[in-house]
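User: Hi! I'm working on a homework problem where we have to compare a predicted structure to a textbook description. Could you give me the structure for the chain below?
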Amino acid sequence: MKLSIIFLISAAMLCSSAITALGAKPNILWLTCEDINPDIECYGDSYADTPNLNKLADEGMIYINAWSTLPVCAPARTTIISGVYANSLGAHHMRSMTQMPEFMKMYPQFLREAGYYCSNNRKEDYNLEKPGRVWNDSSGNAHWKNRKEGQPFFAIFNFTVTHESQIRNKHDLTHDPANVDVPPYHPDTPEVRHDWAQYYDRITQMDTRIGEKLQELEEAGLENETIVFFYGDHGSGMPRHKRFCFDSGLRVPMIVYIPEQFKDLAPKDYAAGAKSKRLVGFVDLAPTVLSLAGIRPPEWMQGNAFLGKHITPPQRYMYGLRGRMDERRDMVRTVRDERYQYIHNYMPHREYGQYVSYMFQTPTTKTWKSLFDQGKLTPTQAAFWKRKPPEELYDLTKDPFETNNLAYSPEHKHTLERFRKAEKEWITNIRDTGFLPEGEIHSRAEGSTPYVYAHSPEYRLEKIQRIASLATGLDPADVSTLKSSLSDADSSVRYWAAMGILMRGQSTILNSLPTLRNALKDSSPYVRIVVAEALAKYGTNADVEAALDCLAELSNINNSNLYAAIDALNAADKLDRKAETIKGQISEVPESNSSVHPRMKSYIWRLKNKIAADLE
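Assistant: Happy to help. Predicted structure tokens:
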């Protein structure tokens, strides 16, 4: 009898420990949500109410340094689905659309080839055209239950209840606004407290849905055969979180549970209830999923597997970025290690809180801006509505809210230089397409793809990036180089040279008038738009008239293209009452034509409305 028991126990242990070696593949379940920071109990937030996620964390492992890579949904999901940085693909601007090179696939295609049933319920929102069939089912009905008998599955369930829009849909609060810890950059008002309380209510509702999916898995008897991920897609929908390259915009919760029989796929530090400090970015998710399925990630994937048979050593840095956010132009690159975050603002002449119409629907945003206009904010709170510095450096251990910029601290000079070097190496290694004006990303890659173009000798990235860095550094000593670069053969070099003069303001513009007048005739519409904004702000009456004519012409998509029209309208919006003379022409600008992708069809309409409202 004892021998029989010993045999049964040994057989069970063999089955459990050797099943992966015998060829069994784990099921993989992703439970994802939108617009959430690590504001859950298992991360130490006592205001949150998340029992189901707490239980998952007790059984699995928390990643305390997980980053979204981009602080808004479509570009972030682009990075996830491809395993390639969106700015390497030319797909980092919000709701843009481009193609992957022919040799690339989206990660579910690799999984399907390996026998997995892949379901997505249901949001896609990629900035990439799908290269053929990606999912077995991607719909509101998609479910792992629809697979064949015994077939391993990869399944996503995405919960939108925490989305930015749900902060605005008023309901009876369950979290007490009086108990909110208002971050120091937000004003402490009833509207702000209500929005934060409602955000936490939505997290609790999301947690309930997470629990329902985990219960489904358990009832099907699959909890011991399924690796479970939970994560959010970027920071919360509160202003200065989503869309912004602070840690509050990029840091997300991530919990991974690996059942006992697949522990050979876990990292060495994996344990129930453990917390990993490993730096994990969204670019790492695709290679990690492939690695868990026993598939070696292709060399072109730019992320690093942090689980599975093909796990890689931890990385020293994570990288993030921001491009155009809906109708507003911007460019930010950021690098983080365990302690510091470095931010390089390539458009420091713009304020953080540019008017994005969707963001301004949130009560906190409107209240915050109103108090700024009334002069009723503290310096920390007012900073969001002012121009950005060219560089930022934050010690996240001492300053988790990132309000004390150390970039200009002599004590942190060497740290700053280290991060500058890391940023430059990353930009070079991935062939960052973001140094081209958005329209040129597509025009230069016509007949190919932005990724392929960026890896060709025609893309003079190193020179363009050098001029962009001189432009954004705002050093007066670099003005002569910028002026001479306005005659460079490469239009993107000329673009950044013009940007550098515009960024430096009135004195530099006035001392550059002859050069700028000549550049107003440039063959590139993107160069002309930057020059026109500079001349319209500080030129002579004749300069202003010529500049406004240029902006009026290029804001019409029938005279230029969608990207130039967006740029021209953004420039006109910065001219205050000077734009009055072209108000009528702007109001007649067509909001769409056959060349405008449906994902971007509302942006001209939003810009026109904003300009018209300001000029009333």
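For your comparison, note the following. The longest strand covers residues 274-281. The mean pLDDT is 95. Good luck with the assignment!
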